[in-house]
Structure formats: C-alpha cells, structure tokens
Design goal:
By secondary structure, the protein is of the alpha/beta class. 41% of the residues lie in helices and 16% in strands. It has ten helices and ten strands. The protein has helices at residues 23-36, 50-59, 80-94, 118-133, 147-157, 175-183, 203-212, 216-226, 238-245, 253-260; strands at 2-4, 10-12, 16-17, 40-42, 68-73, 99-104, 137-143, 163-167, 187-191, 230-232. The strands form two sheets. An eight-stranded parallel beta sheet has the order 3-4-5-6-7-8-9-10. A two-stranded antiparallel ribbon has the order 1-2. The chain is globular and about 55 Å long.
Amino acid sequence: MDFKLYNGITIPGVGLGTWQVDNDKAYDQVLQALELGYRHIDTAYAYKNEVSVGRAIKDSNVRREDIFVTTKLPSDIKTSSSTLDYFYGSLNNLNLEYVDLFLIHAPWPWSNVGLDCTNGNIEAWKMMIKLYNKGLIKAIGVSNFQENDIKPLIEATGFKPHVNQIRFFIGNTQENLLKYCQDNDILVEAYSPLATGNILNDEVIKNMALKYNVTTSQLAIRYCIERGTLPIPKSINRERQKLNLDVDFKISEEDIEILNKVHNPSLDRPLRS
C-alpha cells in the first residue's frame, strides 16, 4: 500500500504524524511505531522534536533506506539563505545524511495567515530544488498551499512540487485543490485525517465502521486512501498506532459517496500549524 511520486520515489501509504508530540515523548512514539511496521515518519522543525525522531530512527532495527522521513521548513522562512540554514538545522537535529521529503510548511507565517509571500516562497523553492539536485532531499513539496500558491512556484522554476500536505478528512476534503493536485501529479498528503478526533463520533461514520467491522479511525484513514491521498494519523498509543496501520480493506464506491456528503460545519475552521 504505497504511493509513487512523479519522480519515481515510493512513499509508504500511511505515515506517522508527530505534531504536538513533545521532544521527550517523540522518541518512544517513533521507536514504537517503527517496531509495529511504520516506515513513514512525519516531523517538522517547528514541532521541536526532530532530535528525538532522529534518535529513534538510529536506535531502531530498521535500515535507514527503508524509512521515509519528512520534515518541514518553518512557515516564516522565506529567503534562500535562511532556507539553506534551516534545512541543515533539521538535518543536524535528525542526525541524518539526507531527508526523503522536505516541505515548505505554509505559504505564509502562521502569525500572519494570508500574507502574500509569493516572492519569498519562490526563493525558498529555488534553494530546495538545488538541495534536491544535490541528492540531500529525495523529494520536495509544500504544505497548506492552495492552487494560487503553487502556480507561481511552477511558473518561476518549471519544477512541480512532488507533494502538497493539506488538512483533509471526511467532511473537509478541499475538492477543488485535490483535483488540481491530482491533475498535475502532485500527491496530496492528508494531515489530521481524524480531524484530531472530532469526526469519530459522527453517526454516519460510526455506523459505517460497524458495517465494515473496523474502528471509526480505521474507516477515516481508509477513506483518505480511497480518495487517492496519503493519510498521516498521529498517535502515541501502541494499540491505536497498530490499528491505524491496519487498513487493508476496501470501501465500496457507494459508501465513499455517502462519506463524501458528510459535513460538520463546526470543523470548517482555519488550518492548523
């Protein structure tokens, strides 16, 4: 259950998110996940847990080349030189020789959502392309970018992002953006596929999970996969980590259509950091 980027790189089909996991807890979270079979770990400079993530990777019995590691450039970094500095900062924190995927965390600083940083994003993107061409990054992409944020990067460089990591879950699927990315061979990664737990008590989801004899979390994660996106659920609990990875079942097209119509207005809120 893998995804393939347009450059031929393969990504394991379910990632482990580490957002809001303290540095002192991330080590056990990641080491446990790797023992359970996870091979895709997602972190970020802004999460302040790269050191523990990297240490867990080193201490695991899994070969480095078998683990797909993602980290992210902080959202307020919009210059070429700072992009270089922060990339090497992440590489040093992780204690790795390369990262598999490096993303611009957001098109604007989280302290000033909506600010036009087009020129800064282009600067950062050009430096990321250089690092990619040097082999220090296996794939590059963006996060929380809309179509009008992505197009200037492509127009300025001729280089499409391999990935756009966005908020995506049952009831909030950003359909226009999803179509744009899929039409342009940009893989959509679904962060918060469980809406940080807020969709798991929805009656439609609960009843359908019973139908498939799975948990609501498993159904929500599988839904993301069925929609062609790569889910990145987060958990530090061993049993939930195990269940979140065990999603090798099929949701019928009819039931996908039902889930497509689920809508919880209370979750229509700005993106998280």
